[in-house]
Write a structure and sequence with these properties.
It is a single chain. The chain has helices at residues 8-18, 26-47, 69-83, 148-151, 220-231, 249-259, 280-293, 325-334; strands spanning 56-60, 66-68, 88-93, 100-101, 111-119, 130-138, 160-166, 170-175, 180-186, 191-196, 207-209, 242-243, 262-265, 278-279, 297-299, 317-318, 320-323. The protein is an alpha+beta fold and 335 residues long. The protein folds into two domains: 8-196, 2-Layer Sandwich (Fructose-1,6-Bisphosphatase, Chain A, domain 1); 207-334, D-Maltodextrin-Binding Protein, domain 2 (3-Layer(aba) Sandwich), CATH 3.40.190. Strand 7 (160-166) and strand 8 form a beta hairpin. The radius of gyration is 19 Å and the shape is globular. It binds 2,6-di-O-phosphono-beta-D-fructofuranose. 2,6-di-O-phosphono-beta-D-fructofuranose binds at residues 119-122, 211, 247-249, 278, 283.
């Protein structure tokens, strides 16, 4: 093993020290809990059919999505990791109807965690990228059980955010508000190792990701931008574009962090009232924090995602346009 390698745990301890944290160890412990959940999920996702984790569970989540077996397993792994170690006071998950407080007798920690334990889970059965997304907020100071209102805080109040991509290799990507760093899971030693320090999104791009089957429902601004992308160098944008659609937000954002691009899940005629398709607290906000910490822009089309005021519904939806700074600004100029 490379003698110089930095593990996720040693990176977080060092980062806290550098930031002059009083080092209670609680925040480090919380990130460690999350990384343990992600390692457990990575192991099962990697085994796939051999672990018997493919297929549907036969249930639906609060938004009416059919739950996969692995959605529920990943959710349980997050809950187990977070409720037993005294770092977390409550959680909100895509797979739970309501926010979750801790059982009697468990120590209430100083943080709230929201998560999508298996983003892009429809990819699971076809062996394509899936991921986990999380956001960390400060818990109420009184150590009482949190309510939904305690989670209803704008993205600007996030203490940290991250995701774990389960792809050809598993990667844990983290921001604590001081840039973005990526760690690759070395399965031979069971550690996430810093492999992508100071990730920065290129400001310009000619690659976009959008589910074009929804085209007829989009607003005119997005319709026009899309048409201009397709027109390529003969159109007003003056360049040829490339298109990608992984159908897992973690995969799209990771590609954008690595080589630039824009990802759009915009408002459309069917989701206008709800505010969009993706979820604000455990998809939009954490990804917006990561993208902006990496030098990108994250908007609903009309305002910064992290300025959206939550309405108290843990499953509130939001429109998402994020990625390379200059390209997002071009898209916003169409709105
Ligand atoms: P999924 O529903 O499979 O979990 O979380 C929502 C999400 O995936 C994103 O990860 C992904 O980008 C998008 O939905 C995929 O949407 P489409 O079904 O429209 O492709």
């Amino acid at each position: 093993m490379d003698q110089q390698c930095t593990t996720l745990s040693s990176f977080i301890i060092e980062e806290n020290r550098r930031l002059g944290d009083k080092a209670t160890g609680e925040f480090t412990g919380l990130l460690n809990d999350i990384s343990i959940a992600c390692k457990g999920i990575a192991a099962l996702v990697n085994k796939g059919a051999l672990a018997g984790v493919l297929g549907v569970a036969g249930s639906e989540n609060a938004m009416g999505d059919a739950q996969k077996k692995m959605d529920l397993i990943a959710n349980d792994l997050f809950i187990d990791a977070l409720q037993n170690n005294g770092h977390c006071a409550g959680m909100a998950s895509e797979e739970l109807d309501e926010i979750l407080t801790l059982p009697e007798g468990k120590i209430r920690g100083s943080y709230l965690v929201t998560f999508d334990p298996l983003d892009g889970s429809s990819n699971m059965d076809v062996n394509i990228d899936v991921g986990a997304i999380f956001s960390i907020l400060k818990a109420p100071a009184d150590k009482k059980d949190p309510t939904a209102a305690d989670f209803a805080r704008p993205g600007t109040e996030q203490i940290a955010a991250g995701y774990c991509l389960y792809g050809p290799s598993s990667m844990f990507v983290l921001t604590t508000g001081n840039g973005v760093n990526g760690f690759t899971l070395d399965t031979s030693i069971g550690e996430f190792i810093l492999t992508h320090p100071d990730m920065l999104i290129p400001e310009t791009t000619s690659e976009f990701a959008i589910n074009a089957s929804n085209q007829r429902h989009w607003e005119p601004a997005v319709q026009q931008y899309f048409a201009d992308c397709l027109a390529g160098e003969d159109g007003p944008l003056g360049k040829d574009y490339n298109m990608r659609w992984v159908a897992a937000m973690v995969g799209e954002i990771h590609r954008i962090l690595c080589r630039g691009g824009v990802f759009l899940y915009p408002i459309d005629a069917r989701n206008r009232e709800a505010g969009g398709k993706l979820r604000l607290l455990y998809e939009g906000n954490p990804m917006a924090m990561i993208v902006e910490q990496a030098g990108g822009v994250a908007s609903t089309g009309y305002k910064s995602i992290m300025d959206v005021v939550p309405n108290g519904d843990p499953h509130q939806r939001v429109a998402v346009i994020m990625g390379s700074k200059q390209e997002v600004e071009i898209i916003l100029s169409y709105h």
